[in-house]
Amino acid sequence: MSRSSRESSSDTAATVTPTTTTNPDINDVSIDDDAVKKARDEYALNPIGTDSSGKASRTTKGGHLRLASSSTDGDELDLAAARIAAGTQEVENASIENGDRGSITYKVYKRRWFGLVQLTLLNIIVSWDWLTFSPVSQNAAAYYNTTESAINWYSTGFLFAFVVIVPLTIYMLHWGPKPSIIASAVLILVGNWIRFAGSYSRDGGNYGVVMFGQILTGLAQPFVLSAPTRYSDMWFTNRGRVAATALASLANPFGAALGQLIVPLMVAGPGDVSNAVLYVAIISSVAALPSFFIPAAPPTPPGPSGNTPKATLRTSLQLLKSLEIWLVLIPYSIYVGFFNSVSSLLNQIMMPYGFTSDDAGIAGALLIVVGLVAAAISSPILDRTKAFMLAIKVSVPLIGLCYLAFVWMPGTRALAGPYVVLSVLGASSFSLVPVALEFLCELSYPVSPEVTSTVAWAGGQLLGGLFIVISDALKAGPDADPPFHMANALIFTAVIALVTVPLPLALGLFGRKDRLVMRRVRSDERSVRSTSNEENGPVVVGDAAA
Fold first, then answer.
1. Tens digits of residue pLDDT in 96-135
2. What is the pLDDT of residues 389-444, one digit of tens each?
3. Which of 10, 12, 19 is nearest to 539 (CA)?
């Protein structure tokens, strides 16, 4: 870091040239097709060495890239990235030639942690809201004068609500994470207090009112669960994005662990459900209020990729045709769906075999806590090594084998088996989450990060809801041994999980290894290197005080 960068301790002291979005003539520049072809070829084979002199085209006012309609399916992502590669350097140089002879400075700001912590808190709370009733399904059914299957619909409705609001989520995140975070905070506040309005009496609650509040909290989830990749892209460098994404994303299952552990301690009988809903509403309110005060965006980008134009929403959907993207998206959605269904039904899976609700709560907590520890260890390592493919190809088979082994674990009627299998399942599943999300961003660049993130999470929530419905339908009857066991549901889970394993293992095979280029990372490296070689001065990367 240069001395001038160290002395820059305030936002205004940073010297920045966000060239691709501030050049007033960017929409009028024509494209040099030869330069684009050259940049695309060099980008795929040797991205760091690219030194193209082409010109950017079709960049909208918001800094989003629009592709020409003539792009072929197989080359669209490479062409989009190549247009940025061909145009970014010239626009940066043009800005310097127009009078700014100072160095280009990229910075990360300490205030980024405030927003990241708040995003983490909201993901914890919204997941706790999801599992308010499932860990005490028997007492909740008695309190609301309904059945356990009806209580399962509190979890199912929550998950389906995610899918309904996906288009609005993508639109809001496309313009930045803060509007999305505020929308989630409002829905969490309103939803929690409506739930309490239907549960204020210890003598019984109103199932329909609580369902309405539960759906509102479900609508809040996508705004924060899909935000981590967008937030890390905006505030962090490529050496910190995986860890930042992991912290905010894995806070969601951590909230589920809190629900699994704490709610059973609050509820000793049906009448205690009222107090549990009240306590969760108070905690949720305290956690949601700081959302209105987080910074909207950093004064300067953390790196070149944070300053390059992203594809428009319409173009982004066209770019999602890549086979490699779907080889990651499909297994990710399936395994997230199974995590959601198993977490929701764990109480009903284990109790028919003589386990208590506390035993099931500890099992759910182990699934999540061990997973968080594994992710905390693996995420910084993967930030440095970028060994995303290796992590995916190791984690996915482990996940499939764990679901297979879990088929027999409740029947052992001993705690050791379920605890060990769920711990390994948690470690492999949680290590996969941030890696898959960031790898999707790399494969789909220049698609804006919130698009793949939201689609991946929406698939997981939709499948999670369907898996809960299917598992509930596969539950044994009162005459089974033991009554109401869910062995058939576990077999269904294991079969689908194992069938999914070959999909990500096929990545890079059949002559498609060149499709696995880390586009966003290479864009950063190429831009920094090419700009630092210019006679106008080096790129300065710093850490601002604010």
1. 333 343 455 777 778 888 889 999 999 999 989 988 898 8
2. 888 999 999 999 999 999 999 999 999 999 999 999 999 998 888 888 888 878 87
3. 19
Token pair recorded at residue 507? 């990545």
| Calpha distance 265→228 (Å, rounded) | 31
Characterize 183-196 residue by residue with b for buried, 16 or more Cβ atoms within 10 angstroms of its Cβ, and e for exposed.
Answer: bbbbbbbebbbbbb
pLDDT value of residue 523: 61
Cα 84 to Cα 145: distance, rounded to the nearest angstrom:
60
Residue pair 181/237 in contact by the 8 Å Cβ criterion: no
Rounded to an integer, the average pLDDT of 447-453 is 79
* 246 burial level (CB within 10 Å; 0-12, 13-18, 19+): buried
DSSP 111: T
Tokens standing for residue 187:
């829905």
- Residue 486's nearest CA partner among 467, 462, 500 is 467
- 3-class secondary structure, 541: strand
**Is the separation of the CB atoms in 252 and 352 below 8 Å?**
no
Phi, psi at 364, each rounded to 5°: -65, -40
Alpha carbons 222 and 227: distance in angstroms, whole number: 8
How far apart CA 545 and CA 177 sit, in angstroms, is 22
What percent of the residues of the chain are helix, what percent strand, and what percent coil, each to the nearest 5? 70, 5, 25
Higher pLDDT, 386 or 529: 386
Alpha carbon distance 524, 441 (integer Å)? 14
For residue 86, give every residue at least 6 positions away whose Cβ sits within 8 Å of its Cβ, in sequence order, or none: 31, 32, 35, 36, 38, 39, 52, 53, 54, 55, 56
Strand segments, DSSP code E, in 100-254 are 104-109
